[in-house]
Amino acid sequence: MGTSIKVQTCLWFDSGAEVAAEFYAGLIKNSKVIEIIKRDGKPLTVTLNLAGHEVMLLNGGPMFKQSEAASIMAICDDNADADRLWKAFIANGGTESHCGWLKDRWNVSWQIVPAAFLKMASDKNPDKVARMMEAMMSMKQLDIVKLQKAFDGK
Prior knowledge:
This protein is of the alpha/beta class. It contains 5 helices and 8 strands, in the order E-H-E-E-E-E-H-E-E-E-H-H-H. It has a 4-stranded mixed sheet. It has a 4-stranded mixed sheet with strand order 5-8-7-6. The model has no long low-confidence stretch (mean pLDDT 95).
């Protein structure tokens, strides 16, 4: 019972895991590809560290598809990073959704969330939170300035 347990997220890709891993590692600060395991000369799994969270991408074929039921949340310190990530993820075939959610070109679901949003969402004043959440429901990409105004009742 004294063994340690390691938890790792695994995302199933039809193909393109290596390209996706390189894209994610290049886009998200403090990230890097850790290991590529090949079978028959082609990448089978690609493990990367995404800002401290280890993720394995598996080239498993078309059997399973990505879904919004699982997403990666990127919490950004400022709007510049949130804007940069949003634009990069929807480029080349990604799609916008609502309330800060999008899918990248591999159909991986992401939530691009400014840290200020999480702070407001956890506020003890339910009226402020309700106003902010109502404003969020009309947005695709989260606009922290508009969310703050709604939170403040302006």
